[in-house]
Amino acid sequence: MIVILKQNPNRDQLESLVNWLQEKGITIHSSVGEAHTILGLVGDTSKLDIDLISALDIVEDVKRVQEPYKNANRKFHPEDTVIQVGNTQIGGGTLTIMAGPCSVESEEQVVAIAKAVKASGATMLRGGAFKPRTSPYSFQGLGATGLEYLKIARQETGLPIVTELMDLSQLPLFKDVDVIQIGARNMQNFDLLKAVGHQDKPVMIKRGMSATYEEWLMSAEYVMAGGNENVILCERGIRTFESYTRNTLDLAAIPVMKKLTHLPIIIDPSHATGKNWLVEPLAMGAVATGCDGLQIEVHNDPAHALCDGPQSLKPEQFDPLSKKLLKLHETMKGLEG
Amino acid sequence: MIVILKQNPNRDQLESLVNWLQEKGITIHSSVGEAHTILGLVGDTSKLDIDLISALDIVEDVKRVQEPYKNANRKFHPEDTVIQVGNTQIGGGTLTIMAGPCSVESEEQVVAIAKAVKASGATMLRGGAFKPRTSPYSFQGLGATGLEYLKIARQETGLPIVTELMDLSQLPLFKDVDVIQIGARNMQNFDLLKAVGHQDKPVMIKRGMSATYEEWLMSAEYVMAGGNENVILCERGIRTFESYTRNTLDLAAIPVMKKLTHLPIIIDPSHATGKNWLVEPLAMGAVATGCDGLQIEVHNDPAHALCDGPQSLKPEQFDPLSKKLLKLHETMKGLEG
Amino acid sequence: MIVILKQNPNRDQLESLVNWLQEKGITIHSSVGEAHTILGLVGDTSKLDIDLISALDIVEDVKRVQEPYKNANRKFHPEDTVIQVGNTQIGGGTLTIMAGPCSVESEEQVVAIAKAVKASGATMLRGGAFKPRTSPYSFQGLGATGLEYLKIARQETGLPIVTELMDLSQLPLFKDVDVIQIGARNMQNFDLLKAVGHQDKPVMIKRGMSATYEEWLMSAEYVMAGGNENVILCERGIRTFESYTRNTLDLAAIPVMKKLTHLPIIIDPSHATGKNWLVEPLAMGAVATGCDGLQIEVHNDPAHALCDGPQSLKPEQFDPLSKKLLKLHETMKGLEG
Amino acid sequence: MIVILKQNPNRDQLESLVNWLQEKGITIHSSVGEAHTILGLVGDTSKLDIDLISALDIVEDVKRVQEPYKNANRKFHPEDTVIQVGNTQIGGGTLTIMAGPCSVESEEQVVAIAKAVKASGATMLRGGAFKPRTSPYSFQGLGATGLEYLKIARQETGLPIVTELMDLSQLPLFKDVDVIQIGARNMQNFDLLKAVGHQDKPVMIKRGMSATYEEWLMSAEYVMAGGNENVILCERGIRTFESYTRNTLDLAAIPVMKKLTHLPIIIDPSHATGKNWLVEPLAMGAVATGCDGLQIEVHNDPAHALCDGPQSLKPEQFDPLSKKLLKLHETMKGLEG
Question: How far apart are CA D332 and CA C241, in angstroms?
Fold first, then answer.
């Protein structure tokens, strides 16, 4: 951490800062320039509160050199994290394909879709029982009943299930779920993050719509600080000025996360763009960029059911896509070798 | 609502859409052009799910004409909402000044600050007991004890208190609070919004860092749909590419909210900018733009305590600012007259 | 185009609007609802100035249905545009690889790099002679001399050259260039766009840092309206809140442009991210997403020369990347078939 | 400037960097930590090219401490710049009100508006002769003829004129203009900036839609580096995710610019929002925040003429606004005293 002092800093305040830092085991190197004095802080600065130091009258600016996350940091954990989920794994060179409907609507629907996506190569079933909706007048999901239908679909297909937890009061219902998803809007619901950090199901954290890489990793850090190391990241588009697509899918997040952290990263092209004709090209792009998996919305009858977003693929559209994704993943492995 | 159809839409699907809309009491006017057929939907479209219609194969685009919020909409509630809080009110031509520390640290601290800000003209005491922090290693607030200290400060000064609720499990502790604050990161924590909609304390909703005006109003609508009409909006800066300030304070939100809704709007220049030297000019600007009040961070000893953000003012800085704000508010009233 | 009128519009103004539209050959369908009257405008609305109509007192909002660009619009020109440049072509199923230094520094440098990138599979040489720099104190490029060096490199290798034109006064110097590049900062330099529309060299338009898809296509339309149909689009990252990378590369631009326009699209991962270790994964992602080509910075000695950005690859890094890109492009063709 | 080195940097490269810096008169302080070595560079770093240093293999990151602009920097020029324009001045405690039509349409129009706005208190006449339009099919302005009409209006009213220069080839026509405006889209048209830096008319630089404060000041630096110290800044809204308003007006730019630079700052609420009902509240807010002036669009007959944007005020709307602005400015002076 680097602390840039204002010109002619008050000596008492400077001494008090230096003492406080030294008590915390930080060594200080100072460079005195004409315009500025710069303090280089050496030691474990990850637990120093940058805001506290910035608040001081004598400080002009503080810049981090070391990342504020530890458990999620690849520097301290160089090997990729691989997460076992049912009979499949996430990370470690496999391509995870999570497919299924945005909302669970009925047992028949979710079982039919689960069978279809399994046949096409999906390795996990996604589906929402508790649904975050911007309008209080929109369908809010089937809740606990939806979770039951998902479990039936799992029983019928063997596909592990991933579904969203919206509030910590729902946590007891999620005991039998395979992966708990934290939605983009809850990425900084810190009480929820702490709660899933104190249980042992894998947790997939979707990136908030305006979350920086560092904030996203700090949310992973919240879960890991509670003792749960099985964290998966999911990029689902960030909010930008461009409104033609719902959000802007940031595929640079893949190699950036590969560098900064050891956690696996999944891409959700369906929610990112909100348009089903963009799912295929961006899913292909994501695989070639090096993601560990994809989350794709599949619905068996969008037009008649009037119950799903325009980003869903039909099973007959998902099938060739899934096969292309797997072939591309094989090709990519060959190119690496 | 306007539905733009693709060229040569499938006749069966079109008929099915038309029947479905008519069942919901919607009248349809169609304009057939060379390239596009356009359906104008007339009636109460606020409860139609725009995503459901967009999902249809025959639909190219759907555009709203009517706003999706009802209770919060000024069109259906033309008079300003005025909210009584203790012996003060929010809205209705008064200038509410909520001042106090970011975090409650001790009884002495919060009582001292409460007395100081009251003497300077503040009408409410703000202070955080439960603190949303991006790092799990940062101070998370005093919790229930912090709430007790706030109540003591209220008893000593008569200032009503506003403080943040982070999770619905904490709600029982907030029974004796005057205004419940929903933080920017929880603006779309829909379970939390529903919970505060089913109790009767006024609720202040901070705008999410990347929330549109409509999304913000839909969050107010969540609370109001539960029966709680006492909602206050608070603009605290949006996330943009500019990183010199923490966020970009959007003062246009004031007149826009005055047009779209009848709810009062408060401005928080402290969190918006993250720099205490920007609080005064932007607070003055906010008053001249027409806000109903301000939320300003005041701390009695930022430098020594190392416990508050660089956006806090000291009581001796807050005092002249508060007086200027009240004078400016008087001048503005004179200019309107 | 859809015009939404305010409630109880002034009859004279409405009549005057209707007459004005009819004179322009527009047919009008009106839907009268309780809250709003909606006018559906049918006919060629691409030359109607949306701002003029929005300015009317009686108009609440105007929404476009038809795109405001014509020459660039795939609806009116369904086949892909393929542009012949020297002995290579851009578009039409080929993968164009434009490689070379950010700035031309010397004849030796640019010839050496040109030979290296050609050997690795590049099909065009890129290099800047006139350099847009944010600081007036930074190196501004070799200018006309730099153009001469590029031409020598072309002579030595046969690679066509693409280089940036910054001001229309420089146009005479560009007579012998193969493709004229318009930089992101000049995307809405309309006088420059008109100038290159009135000459016959192909023009590559980089997307402005905060340009929407529609604005980008309108810039292409400026060039095409002048008579020059040989326009290439180049996505190079948009400005967002994320500052870890220089910009956010928007790969959705590839399929979106493929749908909206017939013009070829090139991706520049070097400028988008500003980090050379992100070039490979994003270049691979771009090819799998379906781009027509890439623009990649290659420099022969970044460390010693102190003369190029941290986004440059060395020739020995570019060589395996170029080969992977070509193999991936072949695989993608196979998957399409 | 602070240079953060990678772990175990190559010794030869480090030595070569150190020598290169020392040759440029820079003194180096190094702090060797466990994870990183940090070099503190002391001396005049404003002319060091940050990209050159970042490009080195041994460098992990470079952070500026000193601003990269010199002539525009308040640190080196503490007094406010005051610019004399005709019989009025910009900066120095006056409130400049630039009013007039977006486009000059006829002599009658611009003379009538000039007379009206002068009577209401405007101190300068604005009007566009060369118009940057996103569509090649929109009205592009009257060009040289428009400039003549502006001069006639100046003669009739005594109001100095400010008008936009779009390309350096038009510069000879601007000899008799009072203030040359550089539009937001040309903020980084560096050849244009250089050209206006080599002549002596005051130059007003509009902030680019996605320009940071630093980039904006670097554009001012371009003009000042050419010898022209008479630069005015104009904030006109930045591009964000919010699309209800055309752009987001950033009033924090006022106090930030007051801190970073000595140049005057003008606010344009008309273009920022694109809605005429937002002009008054934001203009009032801008004055209370401390701006040096406003640029406001006024048109005498928007509805009939079909020739101006929805952001224009009529003279009868501008008149009371202008008077309120001047009263508020007086009040603000009183509050400062």
Answer: 34
